[in-house]
Amino acid sequence: MREALPVWAKIGLLSFGGPTGQIALMHGELVEKRRWVSDARFVHALNYCMLLPGPEAQQLSIYVGWLLHGVRGGLVAGLLFVLPGALLLWGISWLYLAQGHVPAVAAIFAGLKPAVLAIVAFAVLRIGRKILKRPLLWTIAAAAFAGIFWLKLPFPAIVLSAGIVGLIGGKYFPDYFPVAEQHRSGSAPAISDDATHVMPPPSAKRTVRTLAFWAAIWVAPLGFAWVTLGSPHVLFQQGLFFSKAALVTFGGAYAVLPYVAQQAVETHGWLTATQMIDGLGLAETTPGPLVLVLQHVGFLGGWHFPAPFSPLGAATLCALMTTWCTFVPGFLFIFAGAPYVEAMRANEWIGRAMSAITAAIVGIVLNLAVWFGLNVLLPDGARLDWLSLGLAVAAFVALQKFKWNVVRVVLICGALGFLFHLANFR
What we know:
Elements: H1 4-14, H2 18-33, H3 39-51, H4 56-98, H5 103-131, H6 135-149, H7 155-172, H8 204-229, H9 234-246, H10 253-267, H11 273-284, H12 293-304, H13 311-343, H14 348-377, H15 386-400, H16 406-422
Helix pairs in contact: 1-4, 2-4, 2-5, 3-4, 3-13, 3-14, 4-12, 4-13, 5-14, 5-15, 5-16, 6-7, 6-14, 7-14, 8-9, 8-13, 9-12, 9-13, 11-12, 12-13, 15-16
């Protein structure tokens, strides 16, 4: 555990690039570099987390932490994945409101965005190579991308369709849905692999206790806010709203943002549409899950409706409430469900269905990468940002060809963006 703690802290500090980059970062640190978990266990855990509402990368960190060190490991991994980004976004949100536009910060962010784009593109390439081992899996990935990007199909429908294709196709055409090859581990043995690491079997009694405990943890702040401040207060209203949102956030942050924006801006008036867009930009350039943008929403809502607290005090409480209700459910889903997911690993029929789902997930995360790329390279929807394109290409080459690590790429691109913007080269 002493060895794992700084690694989880490192992942939390460097988890730029949205879920694709974050999952690739964890794979590189935990599977490729340290061999703490095998490809099979990592991809199996990822399949489950992709099917859950909420931030899949944070839930994956909880799952792997649980595999390695039980509940204690899951708590440490999940908390450290969120904490650095949450603290940084709290400070940036305060600067955003109290200090107005900060040119130096904006200049650094302008350099960070193309770096993040390169990290995302690099991550899609790496994950796709590992998962898409058959032509049919490429077809499923392409169909998933087309379905979500052009046809705007809902994420659960795409995943369910892929699962049905895998269940039926895996039964009659098993060679097209490989399980062993897709999950093949590297040559070095892993601490947690299929042969040596067997988790305790699931227990209905333990599951009920886990559900009751984490449900109580989840709703405790809402109850306290309701008793002390009343149901109309913004703190309780945000806790209630984001608890509901935590149950419908299938497909990651981009899938839930339209719903949150409509309710937070038009229904509750916690912030303006411009502030919502700015918050998304801030969250995209900080470590941690992109869904941390919801913390920015909560912060601004508390700032605009502070009574009986000071604006900063109310904003901080609302940011804490929003973050709590967004991320605590992930611990419930993993600690209650992971034992059952582990028990299903030996089921080849389910494994073949999951191979189809995993292929669809590649297409879905490619959609996130394309969406992000369009927003970085075409910020006004028409004019190409040549500086961002040049930085993104240079960062991608540095990652792919010269094997630079993420920290180096992010720091150099941030510094270059700062220099270019201050010199008025744009």
